[in-house]
Amino acid sequence: MKARREALSLSQHSLAALTGLSVSTINHTETCKRSSDLDTLEKIAFALDSDVAKLLAEGYKILGSDTGFIREILADNVRRLRQKHGLSQTELALKSRLSLSTVQNVEHARRSATIDVVAALSFQLGVMPHQLLQKEELETKQD
Questions:
Q1: Ramachandran area for residue 20 (φ above 0: left; ψ -120 to 50: alpha; else beta)
Q2: Could you give phi then psi for residue 82, rounded to 5 degrees?
Q3: How many CB atoms are located within 10 Å of the residue 25 CB?
Q4: Separation CA 84–CA 82 (nearest Å)
Q5: Residue 24: how many CB atoms within 10 A of its CB?
Q6: In this predicted model, what pLDDT tens digit does every residue of 39-85 receive, in sequence order?
Q7: Which residue in 2, 77, 116, 123 is a FRET match for 133, CA 20 to 30 A apart?
Q8: 0.70 exceeded by the pTM?
Q9: What domains appear along the chain, each with residue ranges and CATH number?
Q10: Ramachandran class of 85: left when φ > 0, alpha when ψ lies in -120 to 50, beta otherwise
Q11: Beta-carbon contacts of residue 139 (< 8 Å; ≥ 6 apart)
């Protein structure tokens, strides 16, 4: 999507104006940080003189080549679940037997987490380790 937008010499702001969507929605769709509904994708595809299938194909290429994407998913899931459980970063670190800086680095997607860190966090947050790496909404074991 970004390549097509730039090929047309459009900024995110101008694409937002053309589509009637917010700049935030354009940004999150372009960077694959959030799932977009079909209506949103159709508006963007129309404005870019493209089609939804081409936009989705480009999105999959981004996901496969962006090594930081999985860290962002992990960061979002850990932060959301920590807050849902009413824990501070310090409390989660203590309960998980991790350093505060490790929890902070995970939540800010600064560094790759080891499988041991993912396992320790998942145990304290009530989910299976692989669930912390999935983009969809999580349900904890306590729910």
A1: left
A2: -60, -45
A3: 19
A4: 5
A5: 12
A6: 888 899 899 988 777 776 666 554 444 556 778 888 999 999 999 99
A7: 2
A8: no
A9: 2-65 (1.10.260.40), 68-133 (1.10.260.40)
A10: alpha
A11: 127
Answer for the pair 95, 124: CB distance below 8 angstroms, yes or no. yes
**Pick from 28, 38, 35, 20: which is nearest to 2 by CA?**
28
pLDDT per residue over 100-139, tens digit each?
999 999 999 888 888 899 999 999 999 998 888 887 655 5
User: C-alpha distances in angstroms, 19 versus 4, 33, 56, 69, 92?
Assistant: 15, 19, 17, 26, 42
Any idea what DSSP says for residue 131? G
**Taking Cα atoms as reference points, which of 109, 47, 102 lies closest to residue 124?**
102
pLDDT given for residue 57 in this prediction: 66
Written as one letter, the residue type at 14 is S
